[in-house]
Amino acid sequence: MMLKTHLCRACVLGFFFVASHTHAAIFADDEARKAILQLRQRLDTFNADQNQELSDIKARLQKLEEGLEARARGQLEAARQTDLLQKDLAQFRGQLELILNELSKAQKQQRDLYSDLDKRISAFEPKPVTIDGNTAMLAPAEIKAYEQAIAPYQTRDFKQAAISLPRFLSSFPESLYAPQIYQWLGNTYYALRDCKNAITTQEKLVQTYPNNSRVSDALLTMGTCQLDLNDKKAARKTFETIVRDYPTTPAAETAKERLSKLPK
């Protein structure tokens, strides 16, 4: 009985011992599972965070790469645009140089044209001329004709002067040069010993231009021709007119000398 009792006790103790160890083992497994689950959760969270951070880094890296690519493309486009602008600028410079050359030529042609027009206009513009104390505006054509008319007289080519001087008077009968032309024409006839035409021409000067300073010399030529024609009466009258009307002129002194030699 005692043995049985001890055995029962031993069995009970053994049961409790085994039960106690079993319970402890079960309890330890739960804690481990919980720890493992927690570790897995932490690991999953860590992995999720790492994945998110890696995704963010990748996204930022992609944006950076895209930005660099865009910048590179922009730089390439800028370089291309710069190259095009430089080419256009070189072309424009060439065109500008051509335009400036053409403009320079056009300006020179215009200056030459204006100069030529100015010369042509000047050839027709009247010019002031003063002769025998009188001033008038004369056309260049008249001045040129006058110069051509008196040229033979100035070189003592009286035969040619007898042609050129009347021609001028025919073309310009009212010219400012007319008194001089009449006088020189009368002198031309006298040089050619044509006293009749010499007297007629000088009379034309005296009658047409009585207040001209050449009248006294014209009268002196007339008186000299009258003496050559042996018309002493007419010569005396002419010389007396000079002395009376033009007493202060050199012609008056010559007229006095010739009067002194004429019979009264």
TrEMBL record:
Keywords: Cell cycle, Cell division, Coiled coil, Periplasm, Signal, TPR repeat
All copies of domain YbgF trimerisation, residue ranges: 58-128
Keyword rRNA-binding: no
Signal peptide from the UniProt entry: 1-24
Ranges: TPR repeats: 179-212
Gene3D superfamilies per the UniProt record, alphabetical: 1.20.5.110, Tetratricopeptide repeat domain
Gene Ontology BP term (one): protein trimerization
GO CC entries: outer membrane-bounded periplasmic space
Segments forming domain Outer membrane lipoprotein BamD-like: 144-262
Compartment(s) of residence: Periplasm
Keyword Signal: yes
Coiled-coil region(s): 47-109
Pfam families, per the entry: TolA_bind_tri, YfiO
InterPro entries listed in its UniProt record: BamD-like, CpoB, CpoB_C, TPR-like_helical_dom_sf, TPR_rpt, YbgF_tri
Subcellular location, principal: periplasm
UniProt cross-references to PROSITE patterns, sorted A to Z: TPR
HAMAP family hit by this protein: CpoB
Entry's family note: Belongs to the CpoB family.
Function: Mediates coordination of peptidoglycan synthesis and outer membrane constriction during cell division.
Protein name: Cell division coordinator CpoB
The gene coding this protein: ygbF
